[in-house]
Fold this sequence. Notes:
two-stranded parallel ribbon, disordered N terminus, single chain, mainly alpha, Growth Hormone, Chain: A, 2 strands, disordered C terminus
Amino acid sequence: MALHSAAAHSSDQILPFRESLLAMLGIAFVIMLVGLDSTIVGTALPTIVAELKGFDLYAWVATSYLLTSVITVPIFGRLGDYYGRKPFVIVSIILFTVASILCGMSNSMLWLVIGRGVQGIGGGMLVGTAFACIPDLFPGAHTRLRWQVMMSTAFGIATAVGPSLGGFLTQYWGWRWVFFVNLPVGLLSLFFVWKYLPHLRHTDPDAKIRLDWPGALLLTASLGCLQLFVEMLPKHGLSLGMLVLLAASVASFYALWKWEHHALQPILPFDLLFHPKLATLFLLSLLSGFSMFSLMFFAPLLYQGGFGLSPQEAGVLITPLVAFIMVGSITNSRIITRIKNPIIMLYIGFIMLALSCLGVVISNRWTSHSMIASFMLIGGLGLGFILPNLTVFIQQEAGREHLGIATALMQSLRMIGSMVGTAIIGTLINHMYAGSVRQALESDNAGKWLSSFSDPQILISHETQALVLKQLADAGHNGQLLLEAARDGLIGSIHMGVGLAVIVTVIGVGLVRRVPKVSLRLQPEAVSVGE
């Protein structure tokens, strides 16, 4: 039976401790499901492609998931506000788990891509609804911050073990278990959510709700075309097709903006997105996604391809970045309620994230591993200060009526920031690396080997290296010298790319000053929108 907000939110915690713990266990398993899937698949992808024979669809294994999840996050965030979140969390767990089984049963890359797209719908529903369940259960900001540590811990554990678990399962059990492992986690989360998560509704159950389907379709078109543009731009450049995609995204967004100002119950309330108390927080979510994923994607490539470390050594160096997000979140929860101005934690977080990105830029092959790990640790702590605070501040200022859509907007903007960041930096790195390799090869009259060096994978794969070095030696070239030139080119290009993330993060530091003063009071007050 659904509980109504007037009765349910009479204190800072609507359930007794035991019931709260069991409900939060269900949400924690849900978040582990998403976090595990986001890190475990990448390790298995080369093996998957080798078996299913479809390298041209390699990128779509990730893109199809991200595309459908980016679209569904804000849609189901709004629907959760209308109907309550529990039904959507249950459906999303079932859909995500079934789609995981379909992915594990794939006998072609196309089947896998389709399965990942369905999985992304479930993942988007999970992100759009599960995170907003926390303020439903804990209206008081102080209490919510303490319980939010449980979520950070669950996500931290899942993302930390994901790459290693993916490698273990792929090597000893087969790549299909990378997807089948979601089944026990999904069943656990379904049990706890079904039994212990209360069904809360913040609207009158007798009220007639008119869903904004035109807005949902325009939002889908806008984000879908943007995702395709960002994903395909590095490969195709600014071709006519790419310009058409970009124009379609802009046109759809403009039509969405015009439509939502007249919709009775808009799926994407622009008054909320540009509200003075929330706009800067949303922008900071976008920037944090840009910088966070720049570190996670390109630091491993620097350490393996540039510095010549093994995947295991690189994994050890990256681990502090992921593990200390949890440590930072726990530390933040102890500090944030004891200081007069909670915004200072955002300052500290963005400064630490900027220092971490700067540490990657100044690192070289002779930098000690302890120093590199320290830079990663600082970045993890910074993210631990940024991510939970952006969530709590946005939920605090948005109020009950817009809780789900505000949380979903924050998650979507962070994902869009990661999309744009990885695409821009990836394009910059590829362009600079290709230029430096071409110059080195042409200066040694070895231009015909450009195709062999154009993919940085040659700097990681010892088998490929041995084959190309033998060919160069037979032709009278110093292959080892050319390989070192390629390595230096990759290091320089990644330094330049992550340097862009430094600039973005410093801009974030400056924007924090524009965040309105946040009071972590027990009862959040809804912002006034649409007036």
